[in-house]
Design goal:
This protein is α+β, with helices and mostly antiparallel strands. The protein contains eleven helices and 13 strands.
């Protein structure tokens, strides 16, 4: 944004907060602190009643009377606006600055308690990989957002089409993320006693409970997206990958963190995973395919098939003769069952 736009945005930024430091403004607008000091001086000379508070805990603020009339929005409406702005406000989006300015105006006019709530929810929502969206029930989405905002447990009825399994679970919602058009909620599952990833379009019913839960402050939803979906933030070549699993390996494929969310059931009872991977991840994918002990096949691309074949040859050659560890006698093969 140019300087005029930045001065207007800084004014809104000050309106939305009780007191801020020059360092906070510099981080928010990605400029130097020296630039911030010049901008604040220009705003003060232009008539903005800016108050500088010295000392520890000091900063810059506006008089209490110099405030916008609070905007009447429900918490769900405010979160919905924030998610829409984030989804369309990527670094390459042509409306990024306009959206950012619009949100600053809305945010500045919200009551302080609602602003704090949105900040908490916003830190736990990631839409950086949002694609064509898969439909999610309105009541389900609203319940998950409210559970996250109010830190209340959620009772869900969860269905997995690949296995036909439907379960009722109590979960503690840790975040929300839209990945390749699908909404996911990382949550602690009390049925499985561990962190699980729930696709919102597979939640048939969601009921907010009165019981609360402690939110893990070290949980980072963006890091979770990276680890769960194994997507590298690079601009390198990406390849379309297809891996087919036998009926025997179908359940394992559904629970496999690498392929989870990308598998579809085949007519023979097996599964097929379709995903897009950066080229550097193909060797790791080949190791995973080989780990299925012949119950998985790399269908495409050819490079992946070649990597799996090469790994299989290395494993076969390593086990073709006696072990070369201590020079002892080779282990005799086990007798075949009758």
């Amino acid at each position: 944004m140019n300087r005029t736009e930045r001065l207007a945005a800084i004014t809104l930024y000050l309106l939305a907060r009780r007191r801020v430091t020059a360092a906070e403004i510099a981080r928010a607008f990605e400029v130097s602190e020296r630039t911030v000091y010049r901008d604040l001086q220009a705003l003060a000379e232009g008539g903005l009643p800016l108050v500088a508070v010295p000392g520890a805990g000091g900063g810059y603020e506006l008089p209490p009377a110099y405030r916008l009339t609070p905007l009447t929005l429900t918490p769900d409406e405010a979160v919905a606006v924030w998610v829409a702005v984030e989804a369309l406000g990527g670094p390459d989006h042509p409306l990024r600055e306009a959206l950012r300015g619009a949100w600053l105006r809305i945010h500045a006019a919200l009551p302080e308690e609602l602003r704090r709530s949105i900040v908490d929810v916003g830190a736990a929502v990631d839409v950086s990989r949002m694609g064509p969206e898969v439909r999610v029930g309105q009541g389900v989405f609203a319940a998950v957002v409210r559970a996250l905002r109010e830190r209340r447990q959620l009772l869900i009825r969860y269905h997995v089409p690949a296995t036909g399994e439907t379960t009722q679970r109590v979960v503690d919602v840790y975040g929300l993320a839209c990945v390749q058009g699908r909404w996911y909620a990382p949550a602690y599952c009390h049925l499985r006693a561990g962190l699980r990833s729930f696709r919102l379009d597979r939640i048939e019913r969601a009921e907010l409970l009165e019981s609360g839960y402690p939110y893990p402050r070290d949980f980072d939803v963006r890091r979770w997206v990276q680890q769960t979906f194994a997507m590298a933030d690079d601009a390198g070549e990406r390849l379309a990958v297809r891996v087919r699993f036998s009926p025997r390996a179908a359940r394992r494929a559904v629970d496999d963190r690498f392929f989870r969310g990308c598998v579809e059931r085949l007519a023979d009872g097996g599964m097929e995973a379709r995903l897009s991977l950066p080229a550097p991840e193909l060797p790791y994918c080949a190791e995973l395919v080989l780990g299925y002990a012949g119950e998985a096949e790399a269908v495409e691309p050819p490079e992946l098939r070649d990597l799996v074949a090469a790994l299989a040859q290395r494993v076969a050659s390593r086990h073709a003769g006696p072990p070369a560890t201590d020079g002892g006698p080779a282990r005799q093969p086990a007798a075949s069952p009758c």
